[in-house]
Specification:
By secondary structure, the chain is α/β, with parallel strands linked by helices. Helices cover 27% and strands 20% of the residues. Strands 4-1-5-7-8-9-12-13 form an eight-stranded mixed β-sheet, sandwiched between helices. It binds aspartic acid.
Length: 348
């Protein structure tokens, strides 16, 4: 592993989030501050012997406000600068980082460079901040090349608290701990201690670089429907009859189970036969949907519900947006949901 220091340039994109926030002395609320101030708080940035350029969203946003338009903006920045930089580090709020990482993994097809999203639980100006380590290590990883001279990481990742993870496998699991993200169903791509240990077998490499192709059309006619004991027919029926709704992530129990209620199956069957794509994703943090395991899962399969296998809700939802955004037919979307496009599911 090596770093070609002379020819290495990283673009740091600041979208917003806690990492770049400062406390308003009057209200006490956290507000975004400028990138110039970020550099002031992290003088270590100047110690890297590779080039770091930066740009930021005007204006920086709390990641709760992220949407398809903001993803498009981010994709445009990466696309326009793709040839000029070795890699990209995106500073992002933690709340929806897993959704953005998943969306970017689909929107940036043919990616052969690192796009590393990171953020922090404490603002970077705070003494005990976790933001400095997250930022500095993300930059170091983005600038590292393998023995071939190519970037060692060539996919969309999340780096948080000593772990580099495949972006579309991550979930935010803790609102307070520094250790806030997990990739439950896929190994970490690197673990960071004294050394940065890359898990080369887990990193996705494209065999033939045929250039970056960006897809910026995301169709947001999608929804998440989470089952719970006592859920009423009216709730399910209302969601599934939303006009124009094309895809639903159905969050089920355990290995993909749902109550054995006639009305539920009727609602689901009616919706799938109308062309709605419904994907079964487990509410469990890890493990996968297996609809053949129990009668309660099998009945969903008979109602036309697709297995999401071990996909996260974040990846399933953004994958539906991406596929419908391509203008694919229902059959094409159904087929693509059952295959891995960019390593988002383990079964193929
Ligand atoms: N609300 C913030 C955001 O997601 C939280 C964070 O950055 O951690 O933008």
């Amino acid at each position: 592993m090596q770093s070609d220091k002379e020819n290495t340039s990283i673009l740091l994109v600041y979208t917003g989030g806690t990492i770049g926030m400062i406390e308003n002395p009057v209200t006490g609320a956290l507000e975004n501050f400028s990138f110039a101030q970020l550099k002031k708080h992290v003088p270590e940035l100047q110690k890297f012997n590779f080039n770091i350029d930066s740009c930021q969203f005007d204006k920086p946003m709390d990641s709760s406000d992220m949407d398809a338009k903001a993803w498009r903006k981010l994709v445009d920045i990466i696309y326009k600068n793709y040839d000029r930089y070795t890699g990209f580090v995106v500073l992002h709020g933690t709340d929806t980082m897993a959704f953005t990482a998943s969306a970017l993994s689909f929107m940036l097809q043919g990616l052969c460079k690192p796009v590393i999203l990171t953020g922090s639980q404490l603002p970077i100006g705070v003494i005990r901040t976790d933001g400095k380590e997250n930022l500095l290590t993300s930059l170091e990883i983005a600038a590292t090349r393998g023995t071939s001279g190519q970037p060692i990481v060539q996919e969309v990742c999340v780096y948080f608290e000593n772990k580099l993870m495949r972006g579309n496998r991550t979930t935010k699991l803790n609102a307070e701990d520094f250790n806030a993200f997990r990739s439950y169903n896929y190994p970490d791509l690197a673990n960071v201690g004294i050394h940065i240990r890359y898990n080369l077998n887990a990193i996705h490499y494209i065999h033939k670089d045929s250039g970056l192709k960006v897809h910026t059309d995301m169709n947001t006619d999608v929804a998440i429907l989470k089952l719970f004991p006592g859920i009423q027919e009216m709730v399910v029926r209302s969601v599934l009859s939303i006009k124009g709704l094309k895809g639903v992530v159905l969050e089920t129990y355990g290995s993909g189970n749902a109550p054995r209620k006639g009305w539920l199956l009727d609602c689901l069957s009616e919706a799938t036969s109308r062309g709605m794509v419904i994907v079964n994703v487990t509410q469990c943090k890890s493990g996968m949907v297996d609809m053949d395991r129990y009668e309660t899962g099998y009945q969903l399969k008979s109602a036309g519900v697709l297995s999401g296998y071990d996909i996260t809700t974040e990846a399933a939802l953004t994958k539906l947006m991406f596929l419908f955004g391509q203008g694919l037919s229902v059959d094409e979307v159904r087929n693509a949901m059952m295959h891995s496009l960019v390593g988002e599911i383990s079964m193929d």
